[in-house]
Specification:
Order of helices and strands: HHEEEEEHEEHEHEHEHEEEHEEEE
Largest sheet: 6 strands, antiparallel
CATH superfamily of the largest domain: Nucleotide-binding domain of ferredoxin-NADP reductase (FNR) module
Distance between the termini: 50 Å
Strand order of the largest sheet: 4-3-6-1-2-5
Shape: globular
Radius of gyration: 23 Å
Strand content: 25-35%
Number of domains: 3
Helix content: 10-25%
Number of strands: 17
Structural class: alpha/beta
CATH architecture of the largest domain: 3-Layer(aba) Sandwich
Length: 359
């Protein structure tokens, strides 16, 4: 009897320089020991500019928790680009991402993705997840910030008869509102879900004002007693954070630790940009003069350099690039740092004088 390891060695000798998995991937594109992949199984239109892309991951994928995100790679004109997207499917189901056509990669995904396409994947990550113990919840979302919260709602509400969730979602118009009809149907079907749509160009005709508690008191009078989750644009999250901080300072002790936020962009220190400098991309033979508030990642992409990236906000460290010479400024703190050979996060650092990168 021929053992499996012996068969594998024989196959490797016959297929050199290929590996057996390389040939198997021609039959099953999800079979790869080098890179986790997924095949697109369905593409659903959500709004004129948004699509939900469902995919079946290959071996090595870890089931996601509701609210987590994953890095997704897509090849465009022969170049693999990575971006981070929240997973909108409920926990326990095959994953899906809901993408709005903003930015180069997202626009390509919305416009061109079709059933059968292959996505490159990284495992789910993130701590923006449901609390371990049941309690009343308040979800504050704006725009595409609804995506991770939708995963939470789809996971919790149909499965827990004791669910108590208030969702306040801000969008420009009804046509722009992600999952609008599904949310109303869920609210009709499950009494534990209350949905408030806040339309800034219809109905209310203005932005949800979180500079004080007036609007929040109107839509959710018991907001101080709920575990709150917020996701959306930076100014929306900054206002929510400030409101909860004030509530805590005024003696609403339950509001002190009851707000969990998910940001899609790093928190940058105002005025931390400095003077900028000339950035040389050694291996790409590209040079660009970058202002002090421009990240090295953006500077490289604008110069046509294929830059590694993922979350683009200083979390996943996929953008790490060796520094050959010069110093950089962390736009979150204003700190200037850099030594030869240091791995630099290009998504949150800018040039602080002349910089040479090994890419």
């Amino acid at each position: 009897m021929v053992r499996i390891p012996a068969l594998r060695r024989m196959a490797s000798l016959l297929l050199t320089p290929l590996e057996p998995e390389d040939v198997l991937s021609l039959v099953n594109p999800l079979s790869s020991h080098r890179q986790l992949r997924g095949v697109v199984t369905k593409v659903t239109r959500e709004t004129p500019e948004s699509r939900t892309i469902h995919f079946r991951p290959g071996r090595g994928w870890n089931p996601h928790d509701a609210g987590q995100w994953a890095r997704i790679g897509v090849e465009i004109d022969g170049v693999r680009h990575w971006r981070s997207y929240s997973l909108s499917a409920p926990a326990g189901a095959d994953p899906a991402i809901t993408v709005t056509a903003i930015g180069f990669v997202s626009t390509e995904l919305v416009r061109r993705t079709k059933v059968g396409d292959i996505l490159f994947l990284d495992v789910p990550q993130g701590d923006f997840v449901l609390p371990q113990h049941p309690r009343p919840l308040l979800m504050l979302t704006a725009g595409s910030g609804l995506t991770p919260v939708m995963s939470m709602i789809r996971t919790l509400v149909p499965r827990r008869p004791d669910a108590d969730v208030v969702l306040v979602h801000s969008a420009r118009t009804r046509d722009d509102a992600l999952f609008h009809d599904e949310l109303l149907e869920l609210a009709d079907q499950f009494p534990g879900l209350k949905v408030v749509h806040w339309f800034t160009r219809e109905a209310q005709g203005r932005r949800l004002d979180l500079t004080d508690a007036t609007d929040l008191e109107t839509v959710c009078p018991d907001w101080r007693g709920r575990a709150a989750y917020a996701c959306g644009p930076a100014d929306f999250l900054d206002a929510a954070t400030a409101l909860w901080d004030r509530a805590a300072a005024e003696g609403a002790a339950e509001a002190t630790t009851a707000l969990t936020i998910e940001r899609f962009a790093p928190v940058l220190l105002p005025g931390a940009g400095g003077e900028g400098g000339r950035v040389t991309f050694e291996k790409s033979d590209k040079v660009v003069d970058a202002p002090g508030d421009c990240t090295l990642l953006d500077a490289g992409e604008q110069a046509g350099v294929v830059m590694p990236s993922g979350c683009r906000m200083g979390i996943c460290r996929s953008c790490l690039t060796p520094l050959v010479a010069g110093q950089v400024r962390d736009l979150r703190t204003g700190e200037v740092h850099g030594e030869e050979g240091e791995l630099i996060q290009t998504c949150i650092n800018a040039a602080a004088g002349p910089v040479h990168l090994d890419i």
